[in-house]
Design brief:
CATH superfamily of chain A: NAD(P)-binding Rossmann-like Domain
Radius of gyration of chain A: 16 Å
CATH topology of chain A: Rossmann fold
Radius of gyration of chain B: 17 Å
Strand order of the largest sheet of chain A: 2-1-3-4-5-6
Structural class of chain A: alpha/beta
Oligomer: heterodimer
Shape of chain B: globular
Strand content of chain A: 15-25%
Strand content of chain B: 5-15%
Number of domains of chain A: 1
Distance between the termini of chain A: 33 Å
């Protein structure tokens, strides 16, 4: 079973992002996977481990966790200088605290059986984008923590990878990463939301047990970061 | 001594020791007026040391996690020296070299890393911008190899240093039209924090030396600080959004 962890909205101005998890859940099921969205606002690894344990009781053994959302507050657009300290706390500090909780709780559930943790991040964090500093801070923090976890948990047969997708797929308010950004290399309009599920299903499959600490870009060939 | 920073005002957070102190001295040596913003008396010692060298320095007791403290430091720079050309956010949590696997990071430790590195950067950026844009200034953030590669021993440090790279890239895009450069610097240097890490993990030092092609760990004063001075000077006016890696050739993954 693949559990899709999604943070519930904590900022009154943020739109609900459940669509990301539900879309991914639907896409994974299309791939023949059993996937379940688990939404919450956890602040500790114990809470996440508990909810994953309950999900396992209901849906069967856990083999992968997807961290689908950093929290809607992180994705809000706005210039850094317009963000007050309370907003910074909601947009950056809380999402990062919840990220740590998700990592800790996931490890507690997977360290015996092994498995995969996949973190969805916006490509804008890799290349920079005006108006999205908080999201970039959170996502790059997640990527770095993912690398640390990948190094630490390999002996537990746990892989940790990131899948980078256009921000617009992860946030209702998401806009193109950058004005004047490169065109996608793939000429057809890619159905990236659907393809995101295909890639996630592949990354958590047995064929990828040798890949950990990586970031896989699923953006139709826009950025091609080094 | 070069005068490449003559007439410029540089505010350094975490200037009490290690790389922070070295770059305060180097900036002063290059002609800058230096504001040493730090929470402890060692930052005052740095300012005094700068003053003994003949340059102008101002110590402002500053906890970078407290908005009023950062506001005071920025205000003091402007009042004392007439403006602000650059901020170097070098402060890190006192727990930076504390070994704690991901499972063992507690809330206090995590929050301290996030507060000093990230809230500190945010507060410095937000409060300094009005002054930096007046002078087409620079915002420099000290990050770390751990922020690019991940660290088993220091995952919290790794996370916030990676997060700072996210800040650098996006803020550089956001502030480019305002004429303000934003740059990260990832040093490998012999610092008090690294020496603490050696004590906690004795195998670290020989391992580090063996993986640095230049065969030694950098010196804060002669290997790292001059690069920061360059990044603050005219020669670096077209560099923004990058993480400059100063590590003897260890990281070659770009």
């Amino acid at each position: 079973m693949i559990a899709i962890l999604e943070e519930e909205a904590v900022d009154p101005g943020a739109a609900p992002a459940r669509a990301v998890g539900l879309s991914l859940e639907s896409g994974l099921r299309d791939q023949g996977e059993q996937a379940v969205v688990v939404a919450g606002a956890w602040t500790s690894g114990d809470e996440v481990a508990d909810v994953l344990a309950r999900t396992e009781e209901a849906h069967g053994p856990l083999r992968a966790v997807v961290l689908a959302s950093a929290g809607d507050a992180a994705t809000l657009e706005g210039d850094l200088v317009e963000i007050d300290p309370a907003q910074w706390h909601r947009r950056v500090e809380l999402p990062l605290q919840r990220t740590l909780a998700c990592f800790q709780g996931t490890h507690r559930r997977l360290r015996v059986s092994g498995g995969s943790l996949v973190v969805l991040v916006p490509t804008l964090a890799l290349v920079g984008a005006s108006g999205f500093v908080p999201w970039a801070v959170v996502a790059e923090g997640q990527r770095s923590l993912a690398k640390a976890a990948a190094r630490a948990w390999g002996h537990d047969r746990i892989t940790v990878n990131c899948v980078a997708v256009p921000g617009a797929l992860l946030a209702p308010s998401g806009s193109p990463d950058r004005p004047g950004q490169p065109d996608a290399a793939l000429a057809r309009p890619p159905d990236l939301r659907h393809e995101m599920a295909s890639v996630v299903a592949s990354v958590v499959s047995d064929g990828w047990t040798g890949v950990t600490g990586a970031t896989i870009a699923v953006d139709g060939g826009v950025w091609m970061t080094p | 001594m070069s005068d490449g920073l003559a007439g410029r005002v540089v505010l350094v957070t975490g200037g009490g020791a290690g790389i922070g102190r070295s770059l305060c001295l180097a900036c002063a040596d290059a002609g800058a007026d230096v504001v040493v913003a730090g929470p402890g008396d060692n930052a005052a010692d740095t300012a005094e040391q700068v003053g003994r060298g003949g340059a102008r320095a101002l110590f402002v007791r500053t906890d970078v996690t407290v908005p009023a403290d950062v506001e005071t430091a920025v205000g003091a720079a402007v009042e004392r020296f007439g403006g602000l050309d650059a901020v170097v956010h070098n402060a890190t949590s006192r727990l930076s070299s504390h070994v704690a696997p991901i499972d063992e990071i507690d809330e206090d430790e995590w929050n301290d890393h996030v507060a000093v590195s990230l809230r500190g950067a945010y507060l410095c950026a937000r409060l300094a911008l009005p002054h930096l844009r007046e002078r087409r200034g620079r915002f420099i953030v000290m990050t770390s190899p751990a922020g690019m590669e991940g660290s088993v021993a220091l995952p919290a440090y790794s996370a916030v240093k990676g997060a700072l790279r996210g800040l650098v890239k996006s803020l550089a895009v956001e502030w480019g039209p305002l004429g303000v450069n934003v740059v990260g610097l990832s040093p490998l240097a012999q610092t008090p924090a690294l020496e603490r890490a050696y004590r906690e993990n004795p195998s670290l030092e020989p391992r580090l030396r063996s993986v640095v092609p230049l065969g030694r760990i950098g010196d804060p004063g002669t290997d790292i600080a001059p690069v920061v001075v360059f990044l603050l000077g005219d020669g670096a006016r077209y560099i923004s959004g990058q993480t400059i890696v100063v590590d003897g050739g260890r990281f070659t993954g770009l």
